[in-house]
Write a structure and sequence with these properties.
With 462 residues, this protein is α/β, with parallel strands linked by helices. Helix content is 32%, strand content 21%. It folds into 2 domains: 130 residues, NAD(P)-binding Rossmann-like Domain (Rossmann fold), CATH 3.40.50; 277 residues, 2-Layer Sandwich (Dihydrodipicolinate Reductase, domain 2), CATH 3.30.360. The protein has 13 helices and 15 strands. A 9-stranded mixed beta sheet has the order 14-13-12-11-7-10-9-8-15, with helices on one face. A hairpin with a 2-residue loop joins strand 12 and strand 13. The longest helix is centred in the middle third of the chain and has 19 residues. The radius of gyration is 24 Å and the shape is globular.
């Protein structure tokens, strides 16, 4: 199915995700001239289309600003359908609102527990015929629930019509990581176990759960970001070049890496919880949910055998940033004895909030002694995103390009990796806010060089 969708329907139109992400993305797409189809919001609230337009205006005032020309076009195309998701009459009204549209794109910005109800309603009303559907993560809570969710969706939509959105894959910085890997021939000869010592991926947040304690109690750091965002970044770093530019060629290579990642064992993970988390509203007084996790992974392939991949994610850490550090092995002969462990070359990818790619090297300092210092050679650097992740992903889904969306077998493979460590199989260690997590996390990576801690973005004030 390669034809462009001729209508956009988003369920959960009055919700938080639509307010923060979808309305700004829609206006941006219209401003770029990429969006000229009906837009239909569906939700349970007894609203009118004018009330939804007012909601869209407030959303844009808060998130990115109003473009008068683009917003006028957005308002003219925006309709609202109210009704309970289990009520057949709501889908009859939706079918009427679609008019002559025959290939709609349905976005389920709603809890996963309602996916089956909506998919069934779309199918019974004829709204699912020749349609595509976007589902928002989480894609299940574990391997078994992910498999059940996939079976449910496939009752009503073929896999080619299902788009599982992980906004991280649409970020400019993640796109830059993929491009840098495969557009430069100098990387390939050294991008393997012969030259790479280890890989670190860190996603740190200086804030806590922000009033979402009840939600976070059901998720935790491993389910929230490691099973999806961080594993996706790891796969981009580790995958072989795709055979061509076809979307499935890229996804096939990702799946090969997912299948080669060894299942995690309790000894491969350290979980932490910031002190004060249990005082948050909706959090149990004896909660064992992790707000920090550090894991060690291995990829059983010829390219990566023996190279550890370390992933760390947590809340209430000193800064908010996402970084990748690919550490290269030291030169095989110590010509200069002053080079100590931890002073190897490296590639440094900053994915957020600012974006840069750099190479770490050593250069001699002026003077008689043969002494050196670490220098960082910046390959590229910019301050932000020209296109939001949601704008990029919605544009791709509308034209049927699945490249940046998670495929069923990839989702299940990612759950298979983390399934053995879910729950309370490992202890949760307390850590203080504004620190780099519990001290026990050092045993995961070893004490010779330790974790690379991201620095605050310039001008961030952190």
């Amino acid at each position: 199915m390669n034809l462009y969708s001729d209508a956009f329907v988003f369920f959960g139109a009055t919700g938080d995700l639509a307010y923060k992400k979808i309305f700004p993305a829609l206006q941006a797409m219209i401003r770029r001239g990429r969006f000229d189809i009906p837009i239909i919001g569906v939700a349970k609230r007894d609203w009118t289309s004018d009330q939804l337009r007012d909601r869209a205006r407030k959303s844009l005032e808060e998130h990115g600003g109003i473009d008068p020309v683009a917003f006028a076009k957005l308002s003219a195309r925006l309709q609202y359908v109210s009704g309970d998701y289990g009520d057949e009459a709501a889908y009859t009204r939706l079918r009427k609102a679609l008019g002559n549209a025959q290939k709609p794109l349905h976005y389920l910005a709603i809890p996963p527990s309602e996916f089956e109800t909506v998919a069934q309603g779309l199918s019974k009303s004829g709204c699912a015929r020749d349609a595509r559907i976007i589902v928002e993560k989480p894609f299940g809570r574990d391997l078994a629930s992910a498999q059940e969710l996939n079976r449910t969706l496939h009752q009503f939509f073929p896999e080619s019509a299902v788009f599982r959105i992980d906004h991280y894959l649409g970020k400019e910085a993640v796109q830059n990581l993929e491009y840098f890997r495969f557009a430069n021939s100098f990387l390939e000869p050294i991008w393997n176990r012969n030259y790479v010592e280890r890989v670190q991926i860190t996603l740190c947040e200086s804030f806590g759960v922000e009033g979402r304690g009840r939600f976070y109690e059901e998720v935790g750091a491993i389910r929230d970001v490691i099973q999806n965002h961080m594993l996706q970044v790891m796969v981009l770093l580790a995958m072989d070049p795709p055979t061509d530019s076809h979307p499935e060629a890229l996804r096939d290579e990702k799946i090969r890496v997912f299948r080669a990642i060894r299942d995690l064992a309790p000894g491969d993970v350290v979980r932490g919880q910031f002190r004060g988390y249990r005082d948050e509203e909706g959090v149990a007084s004896d909660s064992q949910v992790e707000t920090f996790a550090a894991v060690r992974l291995h990829i059983d392939t010829w390219r990566w055998e023996g190279v550890p991949f370390f992933i760390r994610a947590g809340k209430r850490l000193p800064v908010t940033a996402t970084e990748v550090l690919v550490e290269l092995k030291r030169p095989p002969q110590r010509v200069f004895d002053e080079i100590k462990p931890g002073q190897s070359n490296y590639f440094h990818f900053r994915l957020s909030p600012d974006v840069f790619v750099s190479l770490g090297a050593r250069a001699k300092v002026p003077g008689e002694p043969m002494m050196g210092e670490e220098v960082e050679l910046i390959a590229c650097q910019h301050s932000g995103e020209e296109m939001s992740a949601y704008e990029r992903l919605l544009s791709d889904a509308l034209r049927g390009d699945p490249s940046l969306f998670a495929r069923m077998d990839g989702v299940e493979a990612a759950w298979r990796i983390v399934d053995p460590i879910l729950g309370d199989l490992t202890p949760v260690y307390q850590y203080e806010s504004n620190t780099w997590g519990p001290a026990e996390a050092h045993r995961i990576i070893g004490n010779d060089t330790g974790w690379h801690n991201p620095m605050p973005a310039e001008g961030s004030g952190e």
